[in-house]
């Protein structure tokens, strides 16, 4: 918590720890990954808590059996899990998952604020997305206008 820049940030993380029951390691991870900046300072809409409320959100890998029991069809293969770790330790992973009978992958990750160039070149720019969404809104308005015109014409013809 000493790394936090503002009192607001400190208060927000304190509330989140209490609400979610985070361990010290989870708190450190959330601070280092910039959760406050992603959740509070950026205007985002999320249904995560309504779909996977705390403390289950920290234990999502344990839901594989429930997924298989509720959603899996007979022709489906068993669900697999992916455990993403801040740093990979094969010995810890092996002993932690020794009694888990479901297939699960373990990998480390790095939080970054920018995409690798090769990946960034494959994605549309923000401007491209905004242009396409603007065109989509215009097309939708035209479709609505045409449908309203058709409805009104049908009513007019029926009234003759």
What does the model show?
The protein has 160 residues and is mostly helical. 54% of the residues lie in helices and 6% in strands. The chain has helices at residues 7-20, 24-32, 35-39, 48-51, 64-70, 90-96, 117-122, 126-159, and strands at 81-85, 104-108. It has a two-stranded parallel sheet with strand order 1-2. β1 (81-85), α6 and β2 (104-108) form a beta-alpha-beta unit. The longest helix has 34 residues, at 126-159. The radius of gyration is 24 Å and the shape is extended. The termini are far apart. The model has no long low-confidence stretch (mean pLDDT 76).
- The number of distinct helices, counting runs of at least 4 residues, comes to 8
Structural class by SSE content: mainly alpha
Number of strands: 2
Helical fraction: 40-55%
Rg estimate, integer Å: 24 Å
Task: Compute the separation of the termini in Å.
Answer: 76 Å
Helix-strand sequence: HHHHHEHEHH
Strand content: 5-15%
Shape: extended
Overview features:
mainly alpha; two-stranded parallel sheet; 160 residues; 6% strand
Question: What's the short story on this structure?
Answer:
With 160 residues, the chain is mainly α. The chain contains eight helices and two strands. The radius of gyration is 24 Å and the shape is extended.
List the helices and strands and how they pair.
Elements: H1 7-20, H2 24-32, H3 35-39, H4 48-51, H5 64-70, E1 81-85, H6 90-96, E2 104-108, H7 117-122, H8 126-159
Parallel strand pairs: 1-2
